[in-house]
C-alpha cells in the first residue's frame, strides 16, 4: 500500500511480484523489486517507484547506519568509522552529510528508507546528475541514432552502386 501511495511508476517499468511480473508496483510489498534498464536484470530493491538504482543502493546502505543509531550507537562513533575508511576526503564529507541527515530521520524503517530515496533523487535532480532512466533514454537515443546512420549509409551505398551499374 505504501508503494502505491508513494507515486506512480514510470512507463516501461517492470516489477517482479513473487513469480509474476507487472508494470506497476506490487501492492503487497513495501520494498519493490524493479527491472534495471541499465543492468538488464531485477537488480533494484526500492521503496519508492521512481527511485533509480543508485539512490536505492545508497538508501539501503544508509539504513544500516540508521538502524545502529536507532539502537543507541552514537554519531561520533560512526563518524570515526567514516574517518578510518581509505577513501577520498570528498567521499568522507558526503558520508558525514548522510550521517547527519540520518540523525534527523524518525519513523518506521520503510518510512525512513522512503525519505532517503526521495532525498537522494531530489539531490540528483537539483545537482544535475543523470538518473538511471535518463541514462537509459540517452543510451536508447544513441543506439537509435547509430542505427539510423547505418541505414542511411547502407542506402547511400546502394544508390552509388546503382549509379555505377547505370554508367557502365
UniProtKB/TrEMBL annotation:
It comes from the Bacteria. This is Uncharacterized protein.
Amino acid at each position: 500500500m505504501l508503494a502505491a501511495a508513494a507515486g506512480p511508476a514510470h512507463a516501461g517499468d517492470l516489477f517482479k511480484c513473487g513469480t509474476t511480473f507487472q508494470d506497476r508496483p506490487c501492492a503487497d510489498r513495501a520494498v519493490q523489486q524493479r527491472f534495471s534498464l541499465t543492468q538488464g536484470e531485477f537488480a533494484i530493491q526500492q521503496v519508492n517507484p521512481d527511485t533509480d538504482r543508485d539512490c536505492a543502493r545508497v538508501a539501503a546502505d544508509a539504513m544500516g547506519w540508521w538502524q545502529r543509531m536507532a539502537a543507541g550507537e552514537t554519531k561520533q562513533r560512526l563518524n570515526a568509522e567514516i574517518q578510518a575508511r581509505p577513501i577520498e576526503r570528498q567521499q568522507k564529507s558526503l558520508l558525514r552529510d548522510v550521517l547527519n541527515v540520518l540523525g534527523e530521520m524518525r519513523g518506521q524503517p520503510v518510512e525512513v528508507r522512503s525519505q532517503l530515496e526521495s532525498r537522494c533523487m531530489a539531490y540528483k535532480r537539483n545537482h544535475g546528475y543523470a538518473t538511471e532512466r535518463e541514462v537509459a533514454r540517452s543510451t536508447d537515443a544513441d543506439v537509435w541514432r547509430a542505427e539510423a546512420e547505418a541505414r542511411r549509409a547502407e542506402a547511400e551505398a546502394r544508390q552509388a552502386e546503382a549509379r555505377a551499374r547505370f554508367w557502365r
